[in-house]
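User: For my dataset I need records formatted as: sequence, then structure tokens, nothing else. Please produce one.
Assistant:
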Amino acid sequence: MQRQADTVVVALSGGVDSATAAALLTAAGHRVIGISMRLYDARGTRASVGGRCCGPRDLEDARAVCAHLGIPFYVANYASEFERAVIDDFVLEYAAGRTPNPCVRCNERVKFAPLLRRARALGASALATGHYARIQGGRLLRARDRAKDQSYFLFALDQAALGFVRFPLGELEKAEVRARARAFGLPNADKPDSQEICFVPDGDHARVVGARARVEGGPIVDRDGRVLGHHDGVHRFTIGQRRGLALGTGQPLYVIGLDAGRRQVVVGSREDLLARRIEVADVRWTGGGRPERPLRAQVQIRYRHTPQPATIVPAGIGRVWVELDVPERAVAPGQACVFYQGEVVLGGGWIAASPAGAAAAAPNLRAPDAAGRAAPERGATPR
């Protein structure tokens, strides 16, 4: 097929953001093609009636937007890929005592690569999405609207992708996007934003994990290995959690470590959650080659987290140590850690271990004895 320089494929989620991106590109004179991805069958769940991605309503909303704009609309079915790459990963991570971010995994493994291939096959010159982020000079930047910035979810985009992707909303405030959607007369201009994980529409991730994986309970122990109580599975906890422990100790205790192998939840004080050094694995350098020397940056360990100054120390291919200027609380293994210099995304990876939890987990613990004490196990390997 002959390439048309003005053809842009827009990924439509059914929400107002991607719809406005399509409208802006259409108004600018581009030949726009809308594509929605069927990733998860949400029929019969809350996601099928609310403002959340993947429900039948969302596909119909995307179809209505394309009809309103007079552009072609296609649906691409990637449900099996989503099941393997996102849902299965989510279940396995929680069952292993980590705290995954399925939205990052979805962007990394499912959304962009197939759509990039499809857009090129259609002869398009670009793929556009409704993400709040910017691209300048081959670099990924934060969105102008910092409250809506989604660059955290996009750190795995490589240089080839950055050269082909467009983010039409990157320079706009959310309120302005809503106003433009109304001005364009888009049928979903006032649709609520998606707030929950599409395959966990009720927010109960433990139920999803428990239905798909074999999980067993075990002891809740303190730093010294004393058994304080019992739990119904490590997948019900994350680092920093306080609710749901029900230990009756009379003092505030927090989850500071999770050991799925021993089925242990380790608790400690708020101070035990502090970590100054974080191991980050599977690192991607968004801007190009990996640095050979330590570099100064700001790091973000959760989506809504305030970036903190740190030194990033290379530790081999695909791995770094993040040395924080000020210790952070509740660093959860499995979460994405993204590196910034000002507005520029340098790269990111996945938190491999929680230093606070690892130090507190007393790795040589085994099952408690009859007196309720956990004795050391010979030859145990520290987690």
